[in-house]
Amino acid sequence: MHFRRIRLAGFKSFVDPVELRIDDGLTGVVGPNGCGKSNLLEAIRWVMGESSAKSMRGGGMEDVIFAGTDRRPARDAAHVTLHLDNSSRRAPAQFNDSDDLEVVRHIERGLGSAYRVNGRDVRQKDVQLLFADAATGAHSPALVSQGRIGAIIAAKPQDRRLLLEEAAGISGLHVRRKDAEQRLRAAETNLTRLDDVLQGLS
Ligand code: ATP
Question: Where does this protein hold ATP (predicted)?
């Protein structure tokens, strides 16, 4: 699945709505210090379901909302919209009914953040799995931020394995395995309870 366009509004330093086209192949973001290169990368990770405020260089998730400057007041909300090309139909079944996917995440002060895919409200987990299956999750090695190469070289083998799993698109399987194990445990508890009830009846 290719990223086609990204639209930001009220996100960190991108206070006014801005839309950027993302072409095939390698995309580099260049510009002077402080112009918002890292903020842009963070916007992509955020819309893909990043849940750690720390990895967004903030104390809390609301820190992604434009905080104001000497000349402009702070905003109360931030929106990021990512358009994906799903013509290869690799999206999970629930999203696989169109060639284009529009993933939106928005956050409002005091109200938290929510997600929509093609206009439908979805859970954070659904969005995370959508990208994990496409090998482009929020921690994907396809997003190379400053210092990332050095960090990968110095990473412990376990951390490098996580990177490889993300690149192979199998990290979503771990989430599903955890879900399945939880359901299995719940079923086992129910069976034990059923045994108790049956013994009480006999
Ligand atoms: P460098 O090359 O120095 O790493 P960069 O191009 O990656 O810089 P960013 O780190 O993306 O730049 O952007 C930093 C700018 O974003 C700073 O001017 C900072 O004040 C601004 N900024 C970050 N968060 C917010 C926010 N919530 N509201 C308003 N501005 C913000």
Answer: 32-39
